[in-house]
């Protein structure tokens, strides 16, 4: 087996046990799915298959593994979210019922929700912009979420939701231009790095803001 | 402190044990028990990431595993609320 020299010896010696662990988990999980069960159980077992994928990717043991695990996690999360939504909406359609969004009535009657959100949102967004990149996007997005969930703003017009979507698209363009410049003109690496980082910041922050707006709209419907 | 391999192999063991517990464990006909059993496997995978020094991956994995269990619990409770047979 050809192992690059920058992989530590101990990681290389763990490769086979980790791969076997991944295969055993995947085998057990797939057997569990193959036995006919209720849909919700299949959804839970999908989580186990995702873990097997993560172990097999992580066994590579270099930065490449880390770079591959992050999108894998996001895809797994999105997949489970989508399937659970499909299950719930199918049952709702069958029963002709409209249950509440949250299982228990959510009453957030804390003083901090009315007094602090402006300050908290500004601090979080400012720190997120300072960080840039994926982490900064997550921090800034949680700032937007805090602001939206504290319900200081009400009844956003559809134009703003479309606008957030447009910002998301523009940020993808920034990201792609940054990557393109990286390969075409490597001497401008700092410019392309900042293009990619700011694009990713806008992308993640606007996505989290959009999720917050959609959840708030559904929550206030009742 | 302790040998690094100990953490790695205990991670592998916990991951396999958790997946077995999720599929054939006691009382798994209750979806909530099944969801909590996946957490054992998640702890095992976290230990494996820890020994490989995948710091960012470990932090993101902890966050997403919490989010996944919240999503699953929400789906379970809402389906039970509707008295759906899925």
From TrEMBL, chain A:
Signal peptide: none annotated. InterPro entries: EhaG-like. The keyword NAD does not apply. Pfam families: EhaG. Keywords: Membrane, Transmembrane, Transmembrane helix. The chain crosses the membrane at residues 12-35, 42-61, 67-88, 100-123, 129-149, 156-182, 188-206. The keyword Transmembrane helix applies. This is DUF2105 domain-containing protein.
TrEMBL record, chain B:
The chain crosses the membrane at residues 6-25. Keywords: Membrane, Transmembrane, Transmembrane helix. It comes from the Archaea. This is Monovalent cation/H+ antiporter subunit F. It comes from Methanobrevibacter curvatus.
């Amino acid at each position: 087996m050809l192992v690059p020299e920058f992989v530590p010896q101990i990681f290389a010696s763990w490769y086979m046990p980790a791969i076997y662990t991944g295969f055993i988990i995947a085998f057990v999980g797939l057997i569990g799915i193959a036995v006919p069960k209720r849909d919700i159980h299949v959804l839970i077992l999908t989580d186990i298959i995702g873990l097997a994928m993560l172990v097999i990717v992580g066994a590579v043991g270099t930065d490449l593994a880390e770079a591959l695990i992050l999108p894998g996690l996001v895809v797994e999360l999105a997949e489970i979210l989508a399937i659970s939504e499909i299950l719930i909406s199918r049952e709702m359609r069958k029963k002709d019922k409209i249950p509440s969004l949250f299982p228990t009535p959510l009453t957030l009657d804390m003083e901090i929700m009315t007094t602090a959100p402006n300050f908290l949102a500004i601090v979080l967004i400012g720190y997120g912009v300072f960080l840039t990149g994926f982490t900064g996007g997550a921090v800034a997005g949680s700032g937007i979420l805090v602001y939206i969930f504290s319900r200081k703003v009400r009844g956003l017009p559809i134009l703003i939701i479309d606008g957030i979507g447009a910002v998301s698209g523009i940020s993808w363009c920034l990201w792609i231009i940054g990557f393109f410049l990286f390969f075409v003109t490597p001497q401008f690496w700092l410019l392309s790095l900042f293009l990619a980082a700011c694009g990713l910041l806008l992308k993640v922050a606007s996505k989290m803001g959009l999720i917050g707006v959609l959840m708030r709209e559904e929550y206030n419907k009742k | 402190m302790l040998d690094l391999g100990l953490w790695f192999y205990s991670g592998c063991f916990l991951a396999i044990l958790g997946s077995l517990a999720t599929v054939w464990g006691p009382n798994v006909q209750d979806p909530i028990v099944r969801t909590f059993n996946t957490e054992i496997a998640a702890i095992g995978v976290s230990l494996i990431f820890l020994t490989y020094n995948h710091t960012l991956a470990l932090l993101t994995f902890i966050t997403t595993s919490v989010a996944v269990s919240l999503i699953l619990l929400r789906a379970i409770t809402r389906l039970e609320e509707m008295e759906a047979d899925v």
